Amino acid sequence: MAQKTSWTGATLTESDINTYLGGEGGAWTTWTPAVTQSGAVTATVTHAVYGRWGRLIIASFRLSVTGSGSASNAVAVSLPVTAARASGSTGTGVIFDSSAGLSYTGQCDLATTTTIQYSPHGVGASPNSLGSTGSGFTAALASGDVVQATITYEAAS
Fold first, then answer.
1. pLDDT tens-digit series, residues 132-154
2. Biggest alpha carbon distance in the chain?
3. Which residue of 34, 66, 75, 154 is surrounded by the most CB atoms within 10 Å?
4. Helix, strand, coil percentages in the chain from 3-state DSSP, rounded to 5
């Protein structure tokens, strides 16, 4: 059964109710997120799935960086479905810097209706997005680094 967003002119069946009570009623959908740090950064998608329930989107991804980014620029990741707004918190994520052996945890925020960026956690933490000048992590993404998150947001339609 295809995802329904309106019941106008439709007949509600027991099967429809059971499907909606069970969530999407099937496997999660895969997608290929793009990671950028000033420009596109090559990465292998080791995990990227999302579920959609009406306009609610829940997504999880893990990207293993194989290329390089540009230091002092925010790290951004594309969304699987266009968001209803271009601001607000969506979840949490981690950027693992393999050269330093450090994980930078952050809050994922909508940067645009199609991307998220990471804001650092912690009292007194810089408000600058992770990766950008003035944040705790300003290095260029490099091969061996990992970018991951779990997010929840409202789709535009």
1. 777 778 899 999 999 999 999 99
2. 59
3. 75
4. 5, 45, 50
pLDDT tens string 48-58: 999 988 899 99
pTM more than 0.85 = no
Contacts 24+ apart (CB under 8 A), 19-23: 20/53, 23/51, 23/53
Kind plus residue range of the DSSP H or E element containing 21: helix 14-21
- In terms of Cα–Cα distance, which of 140, 111, 124 is closest to 149? 111
Q: Are 149 and 60 in contact (CB under 8 A)?
A: yes
The neighbouring-strand residues paired with 83 are 155
- Contact status, residue 93 vs residue 105, Cβ threshold 8 Å: yes
Tokens of 6: 């309106």
Let me know: does 128 contact 121? Beta carbons within 8 Å.
no
Helices then strands, each counted (H, E), the chain: 1, 10
Beta bridge partners of 77: 35, 116
CA 154 – CA 59 distance, rounded (Å): 11
Question: Domains in the chain, please, with CATH?
Answer: 35-154 (2.60.40)
